[in-house]
Amino acid sequence: MKYKIILLLFVFPLFLNAQAFRNYSNEFLNIGVDAAALGMSKAVVATTNNVNAIYWNPAGLVGIEDYQGSLMHASYFAGIANYNHAAFAMPIDRESAIGISIIRFGVDDILNTTELIDNDGNIDFNRISLFSAADYAFNIAYARNLIFKDLKFGVNAKVVRRIIGDFASSWGFGFDAGLQFERNNWKFGLMARDITTTFNSWAINEEEFNKIRDAIPGQNQELPETTELTKPKLQLGVAKNFRIGKLFNLQTEVDLNIRFEQTNDVFSSEAGSIGPALGFQLDYDQLVYLRLGVGNFQYITEFNDAKSLSAQPNFGLGFHYKGIRIDYALTNIGSVGNALFSNIFSITFDYSFFRP
């Protein structure tokens, strides 16, 4: 029976209308979590091994030894948008672990001016109201060691809830799966996001939509499509640790982000695109951490149609003491462009350090 269910999960998306695929769907889920990972340009798929592995690679949850929790907050565009993450994970036994998390990306207190002008053409500011546009992702992850030595597997089921005031809302559902393998101080990771495609079904308030569809003469808007599919993505990573003296350790990782669409990434074709990311973490006795990363390599088209290669640098600091880890990252959490770099803070708790 379980094999039939797995087969259905992979076959069902093939029956959906291909026109429902969006190149930019559920983009808030691509931002990432945890200031430590963002400081390394998200190059952590092979090394993540704490509660934040729920997002980066659920296979890494096997590395936790006790209850762990994590919180993160970030804001950008002068505080207009807020991005928050909370997670909790715990081991089930020596071979497996489970975790849950929630992500919220929202813009609050947006002015609704659709009824600013009444039927007589008069402007009435009392008719202005406020609404929020918020995206939520609820995740539950499971991980365990496989029968092969040093091989870990994890799966993440996610429910996506998106709300645009009273205008529209949607529910979505999808799966991620990951692997990690370690041998001779080398670590390898594979993360497959939206492996069955993530399906979103929108409910549009036609009464609210009709208030604005005829606002501009000759520019009537059609009702948007109500189904949306997120294409699968892959992230491959390889990492190695280097011991420097007695107290210093250097962790390095190179990741390849693969999307099945043509983009302006470094390597791109009609079949797909590949974008590299590099992350470095230097720690002093696992107490103080310095992180650097570079990623999001993109070809930018200038006004004269010439192309130039751009990259996004990242920087981070961390402090770990008796089960409490505080991390900071300076990064552009949106994308390469005119958006200013953001200050991101996160904190992770490990209960094992507080047990008697």
What features would you describe in this structure?
The chain has 356 residues and is mainly beta. The protein is built from 4 helices and 18 strands. It has helices at residues 2-11, 35-39, 53-56, 206-213, and strands at 21-22, 68-76, 81-91, 96-112, 129-145, 151-164, 168-183, 186-193, 198-204, 227-230, 233-244, 248-259, 267-268, 273-284, 288-301, 307-321, 324-331, 342-350. A 14-stranded antiparallel beta barrel has the order 2-3-4-5-6-7-8-11-12-14-15-16-17-18. A hairpin with a 2-residue loop joins strand 7 (168-183) and strand 8 (186-193). The longest helix is centred in the N-terminal third of the chain and has 10 residues, at 2-11. 31% of the residues are buried. Mean pLDDT is 83; it is low at 1-19.
- What is the strand content? over 45%
Largest sheet geometry: 14 strands, antiparallel, barrel
List segments where confidence is low: pLDDT < 50 over at least 5 consecutive residues: 1-19
The count of β-strands is 18
Strand arrangement in the largest pleated sheet: 2-3-4-5-6-7-8-11-12-14-15-16-17-18
Distance between the termini: 45 Å
